[in-house]
Amino acid sequence: xxxxxxxxxxxxxxxxxxxxxxxxxxxxxxxxxxxxxxxxxxxxxxxxxxxxxxxxxxxxxxxxxxxxxxxxxxxxxxxxxxxxxxxxxxxxxxxxxxxxxxxxxxxxxx
Amino acid sequence: xxxxxxxxxxxxxxxxxxxxxxxxxxxxxxxxxxxxxxxxxxxxxxxxxxxxxxxxxxxxxxxxxxxxxxxxxxxxxxxxxxxxxxxxxxxxxxxxxxxxxxxxxxxxxxxxxx
Lengths: 110, 114
Fold this sequence. Notes:
Chain A is mainly beta. Chain A has no helices and eleven strands. Chain A has strands spanning 3-7, 10-14, 19-26, 33-38, 45-50, 56-59, 62-66, 70-75, 84-91, 98-100, 104-109. In chain B, the strands form two sheets. In chain B, strands 2, 4, 5, 6, 9, 10 and 11 form a seven-stranded mixed beta sheet that branches. In chain B, strands 1-3-8-7 form a four-stranded antiparallel beta sheet, with no helix packed on it. Chain B is globular. The N and C termini of chain B lie far apart (33 Å). Chain A binds chain B through residues 31-32, 34, 36, 41-46, 49, 87, 89, 91, 96-98, 100-103, and chain B through 4, 31, 40-43, 45, 48, 50, 58, 88, 90, 92, 94, 99-108, 110.
């Protein structure tokens, strides 16, 4: 069964304290890995798509990387406005449906 | 204006009532989805539609039905609401012409079933 596991479930950082979130997956024939940001009470907002091992994408303080078994979302010098839940998702093998992880709730304290 | 809109944004109803949640999009996408989100369980797919004539069950379709009235409109109905359908509901869209698997989400409907 295709699975997506995110760790940690929650992460508290001080402003400026860099860290990484992890998304590990088991799916046959990866056709992309997606990262979303979700603010409380709002819909997930698309951040990145990664397609192949070794690929990296950046947006402001965020950088996503992909290996054959996992993806990392690196947050460099975070600010309080980066506080949110970060979700990753992969297409279910052989279909167009996305399987989502449960997310990592990031809190950045000033 | 938002590309994907959902109405209502909040709804309180009683057990046994029939309710409808609506989703509209101006992105011109063919594919639309309904998810529910519960604390600790993440996003789970209820139904999806790849075009007006196509409707598919997702992971947790029991107790729900959908209608794709037009390319831009996809409605979710709870025929007889029950308390464990209390959740946050999201509509999403994607487009085969773009990256077909990148989904764009609406703002959500918070549903409370008493």
